[in-house]
Backbone:
């Protein structure tokens, strides 16, 4: 990656264009997803220590021992959801809010659940700064989903479920799509569950990934 100009807009734009071209080359081809990635300032979601790496195609650490996902994985998972403009999407694991922001730009409403109150507060501030008004947040146990708002057209899980996320699948519309990393080890399988319209699901293995685990309950923070 080329040297970034000090606070230079040209340097930022060059890096962003290079990143988008890289995502295209890796198979992220959905125009709406690419437009959302291109219009979202990833540096806003990146800690100060890593801002110069904001446009690298890599995961980066954030607070509470969590990560902001690799842009390719964000693009791949968003594309796999096949979100439609009128879709209501449930996201499990708000984190920095980067993936949430991408989803908000391609859907009607995003419901997002985060177990770390600190992360949720910071993400909410970013949504406000960006003028995003179609995101509804909840501090809670993501593994339980958001049953009061179910069923959802699409569900995206950004932490690794130990096995098939049955509680979340029960909150999906019959013809909906759920994408989640599944597995107990350091490397998990990224699975897309496609509703058959009659209460059943077909599971597709997309690729291998590395995500933080999906934990029960809410986090205890100092």
Residues:
């Amino acid at each position: 990656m080329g040297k970034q100009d000090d606070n230079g807009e040209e340097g930022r734009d060059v890096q962003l264009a290079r990143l988008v071209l890289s995502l295209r080359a890796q198979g992220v081809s959905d125009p709406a997803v690419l437009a959302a990635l291109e219009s979202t300032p990833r540096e806003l979601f990146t800690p100060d220590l890593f801002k110069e790496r904001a446009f690298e195609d890599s995961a980066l650490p954030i607070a509470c021992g969590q990560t902001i996902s690799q842009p390719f994985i964000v693009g791949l998972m968003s594309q796999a959801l096949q979100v439609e403009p009128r879709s209501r999407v449930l996201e499990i694991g708000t984190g920095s809010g980067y993936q949430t922001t991408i989803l908000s730009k391609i859907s009607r409403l995003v419901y997002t659940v985060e177990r770390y109150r600190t992360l949720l507060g910071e993400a909410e501030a970013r949504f406000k700064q960006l003028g995003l008004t179609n995101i509804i947040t909840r501090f809670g146990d993501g593994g339980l989903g958001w049953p009061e708002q179910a069923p959802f057209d699409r569900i995206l899980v950004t932490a690794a479920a130990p096995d098939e996320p049955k509680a979340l699948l029960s909150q999906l519309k019959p013809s909906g799509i759920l994408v989640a990393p599944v597995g107990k080890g350091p490397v998990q399988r990224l699975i897309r569950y496609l509703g058959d319209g009659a209460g059943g699901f077909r599971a597709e293995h997309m690729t291998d990934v590395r995500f933080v685990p999906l934990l029960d309950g809410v986090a205890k923070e100092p």
In short: The CA atoms of residues 191 and 205 lie 5 Å apart. The chain has a mean pLDDT of 94. The domain at 9-209 is CATH 3.40.50.150 (Rossmann fold).
